[in-house]
C-alpha cells in the first residue's frame, strides 16, 4: 500500500512516502522536510531513496505553501517518484490534539474534522496546520482515504490525579479542561524502540522519554504506560520551546493583558508565537541559530540554552521522584538527537542515581545508540524518532479494515 505520511509541526512539515507491506516490512520511497516555515528564508528538502538529497532555500510563508511544495516534488517529471498523485492509496496525518475524543487513530470524515477543529483551541500552533494539510489532500485526492493519528492518545493512560487541574470541577465538566500531553506518537515509538535497543523489559520498566525540538515534552512511562507528561491542556505547558513560554505563573497572563491592553487572542499569540527561544533571545526560535549565537558570545542566547537545560533537568528529576527511580532515559527530537552538549549537561546532574555517562559515544554523533557506560545503573540512549512509521502502520491497518 502506497501511503503518504504528513507530519505538520508548528514550523515544519515532515513527509514520507512509503510502500507498506506489513508493520515492519516496508519500503521508504521518498522523504523530506519543509523547515523554518514563517521565516524570511525557508528550507525545502526532498530525497528519493538511493538518490542525493535536493535542498532549496526559498520563502515558505505558511503550511499551505509548504504542502504545495511537497505534492509538486513527488510528481515532478524529472525527480519525482509518482506518475500522478492518484498512485497514492492512503494518506496518514499526525494530529497534535484530539482532546478526549480520540484514544487511537481514526479515519477522516467530517465528524472527525469537526472534532479536530474544536481542538484547535487546545493546540493553536498545530491543529490549524493539520487541517490545512488534510484539506489540501482532499482537494487533490478526494477519493483517497485519510487517517489521523493523535499525539494525545498515548497519554490517555494518565490517572485523574495526574491530568486534573485544581480549578473548579465544573470547568472540566463543561469545557474538558485537563492535561492532555502531546508528542505521544514519538514518546510511544521511542520508548518501545529504546527499550528493545537497551535490553530493557518494557513491561517491567521505568522510562523517561525526552522529545526535545522546536516543541519539547518529557514523559514518564511505567511498564509501557504513561503516568505523567510535561505538556498539559495545550502544548504551551512545560518547558521553554521555540516560540512557547512553557510554565509561567498564571497571574502573569491578566497582569500583562492589563498593562499592555491585550485581548485574549493577542495574549495567546504572545505566549505561543512570540515567547520561548524567540522571546527570550529577541532574535530566533531556531536552536541551530541559537547555538551559533551562543558560541559567538550572545548573552541572551546563552540564557536560552541554559534555561532549556535547566527545564529538562527539572522535569527528569520530578519524574524520577514520581516513579521512585528510573531504568532508562531517552533523548529524541531535532535538538535531543543532535545536541550532544545538551545531553551531556543534563546527564551530569544524575550521577547520584548511578548514571555513568559515555562522553565519547555521546560526542560521536551516532544515533540509536547507548550513551551510558556498560556498568551504569541508569541507561541513557539517543533514539531517532519515527512518528511517520507509526502513522503509516495505523493508516495501513485502518484502510485494510475498510476493505475487509
Mean pLDDT, rounded to whole units?
Answer: 94
SSE pattern: EEEEEHEEHHEHHHEEEHHHHHEHHHEEH
Number of helices: 15
Helix content: 25-40%
Largest sheet: 8 strands, mixed
Distance between the termini: 15 Å
Which structural class fits the helix and strand makeup? alpha/beta
Radius of gyration over all CA atoms, rounded: 21 Å
Strand order of the largest sheet: 5-4-3-2-1-6-8-7
Poorly predicted runs are: none
Number of strands: 14
Estimate the strand proportion: 15-25%
Overall outline? globular
Which labels suit this protein?
single chain; 404 residues; alpha/beta; eight-stranded mixed β-sheet; six-stranded mixed β-sheet; 15 helices; 14 strands; 39% helix; 19% strand; globular
Task: Write a structural description.
The protein has helices at 63-74, 110-118, 127-140, 160-163, 169-175, 184-198, 252-260, 264-273, 276-281, 287-295, 299-323, 333-338, 340-347, 359-363, 387-403, and strands at 2-8, 13-20, 26-35, 42-48, 54-58, 90-95, 106-107, 146-150, 206-211, 217-222, 225-229, 328-332, 369-370, 379-382. Helix 10 (287-295) crosses helix 11 and helix 11 (299-323) packs across helix 13. The mean pLDDT is 94. By secondary structure, it is an alpha/beta fold. It is globular and about 55 Å long.
Summarize the entry for a quick read.
The chain has helices at 63-74, 110-118, 127-140, 160-163, 169-175, 184-198, 252-260, 264-273, 276-281, 287-295, 299-323, 333-338, 340-347, 359-363, 387-403; strands at residues 2-8, 13-20, 26-35, 42-48, 54-58, 90-95, 106-107, 146-150, 206-211, 217-222, 225-229, 328-332, 369-370, 379-382.
Amino acid at each position: 500500500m502506497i501511503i503518504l505520511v504528513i507530519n505538520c509541526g508548528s514550523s515544519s512539515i515532515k513527509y514520507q512516502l512509503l510502500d507498506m507491506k506489513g508493520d515492519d516490512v516496508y519500503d521508504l520511497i521518498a522523504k523530506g522536510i519543509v523547515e523554518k516555515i514563517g521565516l524570511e528564508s525557508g528550507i525545502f528538502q526532498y530525497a528519493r531513496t538511493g538518490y542525493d538529497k535536493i535542498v532549496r532555500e526559498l520563502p515558505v510563508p505558511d503550511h499551505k505553501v509548504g504542502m504545495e511544495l511537497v505534492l509538486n516534488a513527488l510528481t515532478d517529471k524529472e525527480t519525482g517518484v509518482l506518475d500522478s498523485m492518484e498512485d497514492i492509496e492512503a494518506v496518514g496525518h499526525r494530529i497534535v490534539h484530539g482532546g478526549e475524543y480520540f484514544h487511537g487513530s481514526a479515519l477522516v470524515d467530517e465528524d472527525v474534522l469537526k472534532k479536530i477543529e474544536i481542538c484547535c483551541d487546545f493546540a493553536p500552533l498545530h491543529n490549524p496546520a493539520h487541517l490545512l494539510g488534510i484539506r489540501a489532500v482532499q482537494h487533490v485526492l478526494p477519493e483517497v482515504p485519510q487517517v489521523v493519528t493523535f499525539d494525545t492518545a498515548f497519554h490517555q493512560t494518565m490517572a485523574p490525579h495526574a491530568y486534573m487541574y485544581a480549578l473548579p470541577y465544573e470547568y472540566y465538566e463543561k469545557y474538558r479542561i485537563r492535561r492532555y500531553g502531546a508528542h505521544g506518537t514519538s514518546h510511544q515509538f521511542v520508548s518501545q524502540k529504546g527499550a528493545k535497543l537497551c535490553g530493557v523489559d518494557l513491561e517491567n520498566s521505568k522510562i523517561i522519554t525526552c522529545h526535545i525540538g522546536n516543541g519539547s515534552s518529557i514523559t514518564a512511562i511505567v511498564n509501557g504506560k504513561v503516568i505523567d507528561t510535561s505538556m498539559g491542556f495545550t502544548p504551551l505547558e512545560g518547558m521553554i520551546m521555540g516560540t512557547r513560554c512553557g510554565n509561567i505563573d498564571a497571574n502573569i497572563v491578566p497582569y500583562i493583558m492589563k498593562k499592555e491592553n491585550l485581548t485574549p487572542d493577542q495574549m495567546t499569540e504572545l505566549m505561543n508565537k512570540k515567547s520561548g527561544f524567540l522571546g527570550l533571545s529577541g532574535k530566533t526560535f531556531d536552536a541551530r541559530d541559537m547555538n551559533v549565537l551562543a558560541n559567538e558570545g550572545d548573552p541572551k542566547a546563552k540564557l536560552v540554552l541554559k534555561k532549556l537545560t535547566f527545564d529538562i533537568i527539572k522535569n527528569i528529576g520530578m519524574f524520577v521522584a514520581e516513579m521512585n527511580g528510573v531504568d532508562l532515559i531517552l533523548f529524541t527530537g531535532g535538538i535531543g538527537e543532535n545536541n550532544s552538549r545538551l545531553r551531556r549537561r543534563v546527564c551530569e546532574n544524575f550521577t547520584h542515581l548511578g548514571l555513568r555517562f559515555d562522553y565519547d559515544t555521546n560526542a560521536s554523533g551516532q544515533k540509536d545508540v547507548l550513551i551510558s557506560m556498560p556498568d551504569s545503573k541508569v541507561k541513557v540512549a539517543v533514539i531517532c524518532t519515527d512518528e511517520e512509521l507509526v502513522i503509516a502502520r495505523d493508516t495501513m491497518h485502518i484502510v485494510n479494515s475498510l476493505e475487509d
